[in-house]
Input
Amino acid sequence: MSTLLECKGLFKSYSGRPALKNVNLAIESGHIVGLLGPNGSGKTTLIKLINGLLTPTQGELYINQNPVGVESKKIVSYLPDHTYLDMNLKVRDIISYFMDFYEDFDEKKAYDMLSKLRINPGDKLNTMSKGTKEKVQLILVMSRRAKLYVLDEPIAGVDPAARDYILDIILSNYEEDATILISTHLIADIENILDQVIFLKHGEISLISSVDDIRSGQGKSVDALFREVFRC
Amino acid sequence: MPWNLTSDRPIFSQIMDIIFQNIISGKYAPGEKLPSVRDLAAQAAVNPNTMQKALSELEKTGVVFAKRTSGRYITEDTAMIQELKSHMALEKIQEFLKSMENLGISNEETAVLLTEILEGEK
Amino acid sequence: MLGKYMKHEFKETGKLMIPLNLVILVFTLLGMVMLGSRLLSTPAMALIGIASLTLYILTLFAIFIVVYVYFTVRFYKTMYQSQGYLTHTLPLSTGSIVNTKVFVSLFWVTVTVVFTTLSIIALVYTAMGQEWGKMAVDSDISFLKELLFSFLLPCFSLTILGGLEQLLMIYASLAIGQLFRQYRVLASIGTFFVFYIALQILGTLTMFFTQFFSMDRLFHISENISGDSFIPFYRQLFSVSTIEVIVFCIVFYILCYWLTDKKLNLE
Output
């Protein structure tokens, strides 16, 4: 168990508008953590900071004791909430692309998952339905043996069967020396697979807790607590 | 299919109940090897740490035991399983009696109703 | 890792760049055949000859426009649109990414310039080859050397450097556009025009001042064309222009790098 993600006094403002305020976090490996909050609460900002797509206005961010940079990108596997691949490529081209750049990419695992879903590696991405594209992206991300997986809204806009499948992929790829950070606002559907949650409200952390503590301590589900905390 | 879990109780204790039921019903045979924590967690669609906690608690009850390198097994102690069955049956009956009470039906009335229904099913 | 990225970039860009340059090659060969076969001596054919020449020139222009538009769009798509999420999460430093993109685009621009130059030389030679041969034998070798080194070579390197400056100016404009919250493309276009106008003004001023400082040479030029004062003037102009272009290349590069490294903010 090591501190995989650490934020110290993290602030991010966009031209004066604060998006994240004084975020202090320490997440260890071996957990599935929910980053929960309504739209605009700063979830995406925090995720972009973790992935080096934004630089903090103030404060520090460490991934496996390293600052964000080339080394951290080697061990972080990120699934954005939209398609981000070159749609003109075939699936197998993207797989070889990932293999080239990520040492921890497991080609066999990727092809296994694709064949289970009956996705043809020779197909071009732009011939696929939205749902299939999303599954391909998820497969690519989960085929890496990364230390920190960051999934941004992996089940939003997805039918219940696909959702079960996605949660299944996430669970079967869980490793003790890795942590999966899932950002979502669909808590009820995902609550059972989380063991820790972070509530983000208006850019600040309003709660960090284990799911067990919430259920046994407060006697309610995370979903119920969320509705209380974020009551409109 | 994910296991049927409700939102008001800690998940690990619900998992324990489900596994107890599976043992009693024979779905998990005595002495049978349980799947790995990861696989069980994926089957149940729960967090592996939560499944781990449930299994550890189950080990404490003796109904599940761990063999050093090869994993977890259901106990072969059929007497213990019987006792578990009786215990769970008792719990269910108490629950049933309680809900009857909430309907305003006394225990005597409940007994009469039960006999009627059971005779009818013959 | 850097090598891999460059390999992929070349592969992708080559898909369009190689066919484009092959088009130049094909046109050149066709042109050489047309010119060499003396087909164009009749008036009717001469008309076709002129039409072909016009088509050739237009095609060359079009190809250059396509090259620049392609690399502009490619840079924007892979750096600042949704593909940027892939590019910037690869385990590559900002420097690797920017340098690779600049290098690859400059490479293809240079290739296109070279192909175009060779094409023109080939066509001109085919049309007037014999006369050139006579001219070469007659004239002064040292004049030719001067012509080559003081004029043609600097001209060529300035063209390439100019191409680099154009690319970097485009990339820097795209990067600056990203600083805005809305209408980023518009902001980039606006920035590009500001840069363009600034460079044009500077270019004119440079020419003016270079002339000013060689004013006495200017007065002699009308008397003596053959070369003594002509070439030194151009040498001076080239040196100053080259330095300017290099300075701007550095400025645009730094802008592009720094903005991408520190001020990245993908949609």
Q: What stands out?
A: Chain A has one domain: 3-229.
